[in-house]
Amino acid sequence: MDQTSADPYEIVRRAGAAPLWQYYGSLFAAQPSSRAVPFIWRYAELRPSMLHFVDALSLEEAERRVLMLVNPELREPPATLSTLYAGLQIIVPGETAQAHRHTSGAFRLIIEGEGACTTVDGERVHMRPGDLLLTPSWHWHDHEDVGTGPMIWLDGLDYPLVNLLEAGFFEVFAERMQPRTMPDDISTRQYIHGQLRPTWETPRGLSSPIGNYPWSETEAAFADIGDDADGSAVDGVMLEYTNPWTGGPVMPTIGCRMQRLPPGFAGVAHRHTSNTIYHVVRGEGRSVVDDVVLEWNEHDVFAVPSWTVHEHHNGSGSEDAIVFSYTDEPVMRSLGLYREQSAAAGR
Ligand code: 1HN
User: Fold this and answer.
1) 82, 188, 238, 291: which has the fewest Cβ within 10 Å?
2) Domain contains 6
3) Ligand 1 test: best mutation among 91, 127, 157, most atoms within 8 Å of CB?
4) What confidence score (pLDDT) does residue 345 get?
């Protein structure tokens, strides 16, 4: 081919190269702009479908009976935000869900029901509404409902991030259920009195050793604090679930929090380079995310993408709003990429 008459850009392209000067604006934007959009998934709308699939689909067929909460801008592969996933899972009495493990870290925030449990690396952990259960990276886990009614929970995973990093592994256990090798709920009982740490235990991996952070403790913490703390102007009275070995987040990729917005709370707006998914445990209110108003009710889930300006309001003048959230902030902080800005500081 006569190279002298050909388009130099075409020659460069065919050789597998690209001129950087054509890409500065898109590769090095002045500030982040998430592909994901602010969005809300309404529990009242999804719950009937959850119940429908209990009859329509067995757990042998489904492995997990889960409705994924898909961001309109992240449909293929489906994700809730660019680094985080949320889904609603249902299991009914007599059902079991196959044991497996993956390098993605996961947790469950229990929404309703009683009598189900999950076994995580040999420890059976019981579920009650409001409990936070951890399934850290590469831990075997299966589920079982030995109660009298359906159990529904929110699943949170970091698989969008892990897949982006091309570090995803998945394995199915040789049998449907793994053997139980430890006393039930032992990790919760060992670590629940947080100021007293078991001296015979040593850290295993980067995640918290606690299988279940029970709602009874979270509720007691809010009650003990009462109205005697101002909390934060942005987030109200917000508590972070911690890894007892580090005092830091429960998993290296996901931090989990519960916040109480007192009656009439009107939060100050801010933004940060971390993605956050919220789940309304109790109450009603609204969050404004880059001028999108998300009106939320009990058990709704909503997504706040990185660097969007957001503020939270309790819609009730007499009742608390209790809101759970999870975030990739630990990832951003550990990579030196965490930035936060008060909206008052300008856009
Ligand atoms: C998973 O393993 C579970 O174990 C739930 O219950 C949801 C979503 C994506 C990938 C794996 C579970 C999941 C998941």
Assistant:
1) 291
2) no
3) 157
4) 60
The helix (run of H) or strand (run of E) holding residue 54 is: helix 43-56
Whether the pLDDT of residue 2 is over 70: the answer is no
- Considering the domain boundaries, does residue 23 fall inside one? no
Is 22 within a domain? no
The number of distinct structural domains making up the chain is 1
Domain housing 306: 29-345
Helix, strand, coil percentages, rounded to 5, for the chain = 20, 30, 50
Residue 194 C-alpha to ligand 1 middle, in angstroms?
Answer: 29
Q: How confident is the model at residue 24 (pLDDT cuts 50, 70, 90)?
A: confident
Peptide bond into 203 cis (omega under 30): no
Site to substitute for ligand 1 among 66, 102, 170, most atoms within 8 A of C-beta: 66
Instruction: Kindly state whether residue 152 falls inside one of the protein's structural domains.
Output: yes
At 35, which CATH number? 2.60.120.10
Q: In degrees rounded to 5, what are phi and psi of residue 219? A: -65, -40
Average pLDDT over residues 94-112: 98
